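Hey team,

Filing this mostly as a record. A colleague (T.K.) asked me to run one chain through the structure pipeline before their review meeting, and I want the input and output archived in the tracker in case anyone asks later how it was produced. No errors, nothing strange. Just documentation.

Input sequence:
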Amino acid sequence: MLRKPADQGDLAALEAARGKASASWAILDRALADRTYVADAELALGDIALGNAIHRWYRLPIERPALQRLQGWYTRLCERPSYSKYIASA
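Output structure:
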């Protein structure tokens, strides 16, 4: 999506990748049912590792499933000054 004009992309491959990514984010959405961050109530290494990927996911111009807990987690990350400055502002 980023290297070719939209009309030159492989739509089937894009849809397959979107579906796989959606399924993966749904796993985290379910895990966030009983915790604030990836591992527990406090920010941890897993949040940092996934934080960049979730930002790109929400920046892509694609249709995404409504994953409310995932969105809440991303919102909490964006409220952190360092994340907001170095990741979410990009």
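Quick notes for T.K.: The chain has one domain: 8-88. The chain has a mean pLDDT of 92.
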